[in-house]
Amino acid sequence: MRLINYLATVPDHRRAQGRQYDIGSLLLFSILAVLSGATSYRKIERYIYHHRHRLNQLCKINWKRAPAHTSIRYALQGLNVNDVETAFRQHASALQSTASCGSIAMDGKVLRGSFDHFEDRKAIQVLSAFATDSCLVLGHIWMTDEDGEKCHEIQAAQAMINALDVSGQLFTLDALHTQKNG
Q1: Fewer CB near the terminus (10 Å): N or C of the chain?
Q2: Which range marks the domain in which residue 149 is found?
Q3: Whole-model pTM?
Q4: How far apart (Å, rounded) are the C-alpha atoms in residues 23 and 80?
Q5: What does the alpha-carbon distance between residue 33 and residue 51 come to, in Å, rounded to a whole number?
Q6: CB neighbours of 50 closer than 8 A, spacing ≥ 6?
Q7: Model confidence at 99: pLDDT above 70
Q8: DSSP code of 29?
């Protein structure tokens, strides 16, 4: 199945009257815009405007014009992050079922520029699982709670392994995970 089909399953928080643009296409186009260098809602709007005909053909839709940057912002900011992550994991799982996993590399990283001096928040940390043979990111787990305190990477890795529901796979992790008590 295509990524847009999984993105279409993300619950749309907008009222029925305000859904001129379907959430699956809007998410996919926004992702493509960001991958192409868009760094703001206005740039996402410009990307969709310039590539609308090609995007319409790609997704078999008929958008007459690009959504306004305010519409894009409202639609994206109201999404539940966990619902979007679930859609990506389902898509990765479908891709993974057709490909060999080999080993799964897991590593925690600090997201650059995610700290907030004004709110006195520490940087956000995330643990990622990567299938080495298929070059596919299988999932992410945030290692920073709402208070900005870091959760331990060992517990995050165990939660990720349980969430991925993969058995018989070789996992590679940092030396940090060799501790007996974690």
Answers
A1: N
A2: 100-178
A3: 0.65
A4: 12
A5: 10
A6: none
A7: no
A8: H
Total residue length of the chain:
182
Q: Which residues contact 6 (CB under 8 A, 6 or more apart)?
A: 87, 88, 90, 91, 94
pLDDT score of 100: 54
The answer to whether residue 90 is domain-embedded is no
Instruction: Please give the tally of structural domains in the chain.
Output: 2
User: Is residue 130 assigned to a domain?
Assistant: yes
Q: 86 lies in a domain?
A: no
- My answer on whether 107 and 149 are in the same domain is yes
7 and 55 in a common domain: yes
Q: Which residue is it, tokens 């699956």?
A: 24
Contact indicator for 157, 106 with CB cutoff of 8 Å: yes
33 has a pLDDT exceeding 90 = yes
Task: Calculate mean pLDDT across residues 52-78.
Answer: 91
- Residue whose structure tokens are 């014009």: 65
Residues 104 and 150 in one domain: yes
Angle, helices 69-77 vs 23-35, to 10°: value is 100
Asked whether residue 30 is assigned to any structural domain, the reply reads yes
pLDDT higher than 60, residue 98:
no
